[in-house]
Automatic annotation (TrEMBL):
Organism: Streptomyces caatingaensis
Broad class of where this protein is predominantly found: cytoplasm
Subunit structure and binding partners: Homodimer.
Listed name of the protein: Phosphate-specific transport system accessory protein PhoU
InterPro entries according to UniProt: PhoU, PhoU-like_sf, PhoU_dom
Record SUPFAM superfamilies: PhoU-like (SSF109755)
Length: 229
């Protein structure tokens, strides 16, 4: 009975890894769709989000069933509850990738991104995909050090996001209000996607250690300061 119970816990973890894989792929393909004005690819990303939603609903149902049947305690309870929260992060990430694809569809056959911002948006898309791939690796390995790195990696996304806004606020902006709104939304989608990847990694830290990632970072900083004295 307990073997079946732990197999079910493992299958929930596998579901999270699959969700991370799907949404990471989705944000990469959505980025290509919006930069290349690729309607077919945009439609594929939009339709593909249904699979992420199905996985999230299935994972949630299995987690709730485990809570009802087994009444897990301590570590096992933490796994189930944390898994529910991570699935919500991943489902929202899929929605954000879909938003990028929907914007590509809305502006087709034109592109929502001016040529002079293509490289910045491409970099944001690639970084978002890498962050989610790393979050997926953290889900598999439960590597706390790797999980903590994601927040530092996310700083690069924040810098790109700020650079996008600086471009929008430049007096030389010549692409109009509609394009400015599109670019503002895109920047927000990528920035939030990255935040969800970081959130997944932080939840893994809590799952493994029982402590929140921010608390661990604070403790590490105090330790470094003590060693320096």
């Amino acid at each position: 009975m307990r073997d079946a119970y732990h197999e079910e816990l493992d299958s929930i973890g596998d579901g999270l890894v699959e969700m991370a894989r799907l949404v990471g792929s989705a944000i990469g393909r959505a980025t290509t769709a919006i930069l290349d004005a690729d309607l077919k690819l945009a439609e594929a990303v939009i339709a593909g989000d249904a699979k992420v939603d199905d996985l999230q609903r299935d994972l949630e149902a299995r987690a709730i069933a485990l809570l009802a049947r087994q009444q897990p305690v301590a570590t096992d309870l933490r796994i189930v509850v944390t898994s529910l929260r991570m699935s919500a992060d991943l489902e929202r990430s899929g929605d954000l990738a879909q938003h990028v694809a929907k914007l590509a569809r809305l502006r087709f056959p034109e592109t929502a991104v001016p040529r002079d911002l293509h490289s910045t948006v491409l970099e944001m898309g690639q970084l978002a995909q890498r962050l989610m791939a790393k979050a997926g690796e953290v889900l598999i390995t439960k590597d706390v050090d790797l999980a903590l790195q994601l927040e530092q990696d996310d700083d690069a996304m924040d810098l790109l996001h700020r650079a996008l806004f600086q471009h929008l606020m430049d007096d030389r902006w010549q692409h109009g209000i509609e394009t400015a709104v599109d670019v503002t939304l895109l920047g927000r989608y990528y920035e939030r996607f990255a935040d969800h990847a970081v959130s997944v990694a932080k939840r893994v830290v809590y799952l493994v250690t029982g402590e929140h990632a921010d608390e661990l970072g604070h403790s590490a900083a105090q330790g470094d300061a003590a060693e320096a004295q």
